Amino acid sequence: MKKMAIFHGRRWFFRSFSSLSSSHPLRVCIVGSGPAGFYTAEKLLKGHQRAEVDIIDRLPTPFGLVRSGVAPDHQETKIVINQFSRVALNERCSFFGNVSLGTSVSLSELREMYNVVVLAYGAESDRFLGVPGEDLAGIHSAREFVWWYNGHPDYSNLNPDLKRTDTAVVLGQGNVALDVARILLRPTAELATTDVANHALVSLQESSIRKVYLVGRRGPVQAACTAKELREVLGIKDLYIHIQEADLLKSPADEEELKNSRIQRRVYELLSKAANSQRPHPIPGQRELHFMFFRRPVNFLSSDASNNKVTGVHFEKTILKENGESGKQSAVGTGQFEEVECGLVLKSIGYKSVPVDGLPFDHHKGVVPNFRGRVLSNTSVLEKGLYVVGWLKRGPTGIIATNLYCAEETVESISEDVEQGILTPPTVPKPGREGLLQLLDSRDIRFVPFSGWEKIDVKERSEGSAKNKPREKITKWEDLLKVANG
To answer: Which parts of the sequence bind FAD (predicted)?
Structure first.
């Protein structure tokens, strides 16, 4: 017997039912070809022998953040692409690149054509600090910077100025913040054998940046990174690390936090070890990484002569106070201020998902309201046949593997709804792939099939091989489409 979640009155309850079958295929469209989308496709194809899965993506290249988010010096993490490629090559699966939800095809059109629509397009925007000067030149989101050095076609022309300053400030202390700090400080000879975009490698080779500040509102106990990422940045060759020993003092509330989290304990231990082993001063010419805790940006600075370019960050010192509601400690201002001069600021304060027409959306949380992946139009009404997975479902948290468990939950909800019989009407099959092909053709939209991606892949690997790199990424839209359609 299976169980299905039903909303009644003010609570969810579970109802048992027997498996039902349909003679028609289960036609599924997944929007977004990152890890969440591919894990969902894999689970659906394995769990439903009659499922036909189409994956659409606005980019001509699949794999989402595995291609454009994972750091180039983390090649082992990208091996998951092999698993996703096997899914895409399944005879019941098709990839449609260069197809954008909202412009190429609407959500309502997809829902008409498919029994199931799963939204997995992640988070393609950024949270804002909302402090004065945030729009100054030289201030970028970490997402933009990551997409630039990873060769994302939307940001190949970002061109951050790394020449006219020796200091960068990174706001945030999560894994993405550590990634961008590491890319700025790591010897470029080591990056040259990765799949870093060529335009970024040239810029990093010419970079004048020698000092990076990693700034957090709270303390080392609350640093949001993992031990693996922290260990990697602390291990950069010939790098001077600076941590104020006073920042490592722990309160009883800090001790309680550490007791409840093995990850936080390990991160704190690594920071303490680095602080205890640091030299008093850097050697002349040595690159420097400064961990700044208990600071929040109040405004960004510029000078009249800087042509509206950032020249520094004005910080307020903070202290931690226990938040009675969440049980966590929150940073509050002390009224003491200081400034750090810099010519580059990277904001690593969180990615943000964006809504599309016809999609319920919680703008405060930046997610689609859902119950175990089932989209809710309000707190009690399920949107039949519409599901969500990944960052759009739970927020921009976790690692690649987190999307596997997230996909399993959403696919379980789909399976329950299929067996209940509400997704597969017995008499009227949905047009699915055939309908999508007709619609794209009528709009003269030339999509990129998986075979088109394979052409891009072959060319990138071939050009990379000549330079002792895993691949030399094609970074321009027109060039990607030309190779895919060639």
So the answer is: 36, 65, 101, 391, 398-400
CATH number at residue 35: 3.40.50.720
Q: Quick one: pLDDT at residue 306? A: 64
Q: Binding site for NADP(+): what residues are annotated?
A: 173-176, 217-218, 229, 398
pLDDT at 6 over 60: no
Same domain, 198 and 275: yes
Read off the pTM. 0.90
Residue 8 scores a pLDDT above 90: no
Measured CA to CA, the distance from residue 177 to residue 161 in angstroms comes to: 18
Where is the binding site for FAD, in residues?
36, 65, 101, 391, 398-400
* CATH code for the domain of 192: 3.50.50.60
Residue for token pair 């706001």 = 171
C-alpha span between 242 and 237 (Å, rounded): 15
Annotated binding site: 36, 65, 101, 173-176, 217-218, 229, 391, 398-400
Does residue 327 share a domain with residue 178? yes
For residue 33, what are its two tokens?
A: 């070809």
19 belongs to a structural domain: no
Return the pLDDT at 3: 40
The phi, psi pair for 55, rounded to 5°, reads -110, 120
